[in-house]
Sequence to fold (302 residues):
Amino acid sequence: ASTLGAQAATSGRYFGTAVAAGRLGDSTYVSILDREFNAITPENEMKWDATEPSRNSFSFGSADQIVSHAQSHGQRMRGHTLVWHNQLPSWVSSINDANTLRSVMDNHITQVMSHFKGKIYAWDVVNEAFADGSTQHRSSVFQNVLGNGFIEEAFRTARNADPSAKLCYNDYNIEDWNAAKTQGVYSMVRDFKSRGVPIDCVGFQSHFGTGGPPSTFQTTLSNFAALGVDVQLTELDIAQASSTNYSNTVRACMNVSRCTGITVWGIRDSDSWRSSENPLLFSSNGSKKSAYDAVLSALGGG
Ligand code: G3I
Fold:
């Protein structure tokens, strides 16, 4: 096939991108989106500050815009994200009573997942809960007020809210098998699987520097998959976007049968949160970069 999404589909995978609702009026952006990608992650529109800016008052306007675009163009949706310490309104981060915070967190998960029920392929239920350079959870209002059990609580609540959505844990800097953070997340997933805590997938954000993916990346993906979860590359971008780095990254996923899809974190370099590093597959004028061809061929196409 001659597009990323169609080629990924030949092996049962998806190829997606982050989308910003504010760009859906840009015709160059939308034409690339609908030609190349068969999955979408909202870049900011499903985060807590956007969906529940004040307690029990929900707003889904810009997220709904993205979901309806995806539905009318046959694109799967990844939901991003329910429980995260960033883009969290201050009314949540200032709660210091555990019973209150537990009910606020559970209500948020339940209301947001119910609103989108049946329309989301996979949810990033908990995002970035582990500390860099450590096997332990990071400090956050959830960790500090609810303790280690908050992740399990979030996943159990999520399963009840939409039993047909896949439930993912998503994080960055967990691509290198030798990193302490990777080991911390691996232990959590192994523990969840052994105790029947519902978890279906792990998202590896894959924000890489000019060195590209760690040499152990495929090992990491296959070790997690062996625990009985799907693995996905959820926010891929690579500083300077070398063809070799992109190709090696995509091949790591292609070599692991439970690596079910890849999402890049934006379409054109000018759409990226790190645009000065030119990390994406399309240049700012919308043309394909050499990394695009490398990805298409690593997916088996071209
Ligand atoms: O919404 C306000 C808008 O009202 C205001 O006019 C504008 C002016 O600066 O700012 C807007 O908010 C910005 C928001 O993006 C929407 O554009 C924030 O300042 C900005 O910080 C925010 O950045 C996002 C970042 O997450 C915040 O944490 C990036 O777009 C988004 O790409 C990035 O995505 C994260 C993933 O969710 C999780 N993993 C890491 C990844 C990269 O940081």
Observations:
- The CA atoms of residues 164 and 258 lie 18 Å apart.
- The two ends are 7 Å apart (CA to CA).
